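Section handout 9: paired folding examples.
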Amino acid sequence: MKFIKNLFFIVIAVPFVFSVNANAAKTDLTVGLQLEPPHLDPTGAAAGAIDQVLYSNVFEGLTRFASDGSVVPGLAKSWDVSSDGTKYTFHLNKGVKYHDGSDMDANDVKFSLDRARAEDTTNAQKALFAGITNVKVIDHHKVEVTLDKPNGNFLFNLAWGDAVIVSEDSIENIKQNPVGTGAYVFDKWVQGDRIELKKNNDYWGTPAKLNSATFKFISDPSAAFASMMAEDVDVFKSFPAPENLVQFEADARFNVLIGSNEGETILSTNNKMEPFNNLKVRKALAHAIDRKAIIDGAMFGYGTPIGTHFAPHHPAYVDLTGQSNYDPALSKKLLAEAGFPDGFTTTLKLPPPAYARKGGEIIASQLRDVGINVEISNLEWAQWLEEVFRGKDYGLTIVSHTEPFDIGIYARPDYYFQYDSKEFQKVMDDLTAETNPVQRTSLMKAAQKIIADDYVNGYLFQRAQLSVVNAKVVGMWENSPTQATDLTSVYWQD
């Protein structure tokens, strides 16, 4: 009888255990991304794919972007600003440790900011730190940063992924083994496939709700669709096949998030290469482009036309699309006036995203209609960074600039589209020094008009933020004020 009682206990107990496990919320998440990072140092490359994985999750800065785009405290819990606006004293959170167990303190802040602005820096956004004249350690948890003049963008600049705080001891291997202070610890990178993160059990702030997260790299849009439908992937950030969204919207297993992002998608133009150093040629290029056809054909209607490099959801946005409207006859006339009555041939180098590859085919056809023949080259991301962004070896390219409020890149003559305007640079200098909101708005509007008048690039559309999410996943950002897949508040509901 004793055997029978024990057997009865086992029979009824085992289903009970299974029932509890079946109803427990999951603690792991798989995120699909189209682009794989070239390496894992956010302070050493222009690739937004690095921030998509590591921003806030692994690395943190003194400040950070919240989901609504506002700048909030990060590793700095607070700061004081001198009366003349040139000295910022940051008060750091205490008890912050790197993932290797070492302490993060003011010395790391000094090292990181000095490294970012150094002569030989590889930081893609070195200009963010150009106004810093000195970084002084006051004590372990207090650091003073001195600027050459007041900068109304300074706290905003420090929230970029390029401004995260890193440990000097980790720099040698940071590209393959990133060591940060965030709520997740880097665990594994299987190149060509995935990056795995795990929960930081010693995190100084609010701990993550997930135990682990895997970023799966799926470049092919058809494969992205199949992986979501099979539920091999729980979330696909920036879903690359907008034509499939209607199927997800009709399926109760998924939520489709349609938000805004900072992605100004442009036909980038090499302003120093002939014939694009001719304003009439650039203007002809702009009038040869049918934005609606590109948005419909490449993005299936998801996108907002733009006529300058500025996000339409920003309060200071000016709609300048009318001065670069689709007008092939005018385009041909301008080409003839510029000395190219029979057109010319140039290159169009395209990175992997679908908006570039699909959009490139449409734009190539539109340009051919006015006599501009383009030789298309499809490049992998690392090739694009090497040839186009760093090497400036291109005529035209298509890319989405997803950095927040990045119109300031037009003030850098050595930036890859090589635009050099003293007038624009003066406006941006004035904007940096200005703190009055009304005056700042006026300067932002003036900046937009200058680059539109100079037809620096072909301004196409502002990308919508399109993500597909398992219906049980909570906490994903709908909008993308920066290049991030912030998982610090994401969890599965029961």
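Moving on to protein 2 of 2.
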Amino acid sequence: MAFPRASWVIDRFHVQRLAWDAVQEIRIKHQWDAINAETEAREAAKLEGRKYTVERFENGDTLKELLARGLYALFKSPEKWIDTQRTRAGMLFGLYPDLKQAYWLSQNLRDKRSTNASVESINSKIKAFRAKLHGVNDTKFFIFRLCKIYA
């Protein structure tokens, strides 16, 4: 092995980004379900000849609005929420336990501050070294030189 003391490090930025995307996927799925449910309720009311009134929560949002406006709260950590975001998050988490679980799992990734900055730095040094050599013919000698220079 060329680098015997190397250790695996999680690329925190990309893993966290994937987790946030997963949280948003869940939110969007629930949002589409709410849109479809409201559309069906409107059509049913129209067929029955009655006026449709949308249900509003105590903060004045409809379910569609709650899910749409909850986007911003789900990208922030709880200590950075403003009052309206705290209220929306509480309502969303009460209605959708899967969204709550996904959000808190994504937040737990933020606490583990491991980073791959040193690996990225070494990568750029290797690329610069390789560029100076204009290609590598002898791989073993290349790795030997890397170890001697950057180890």
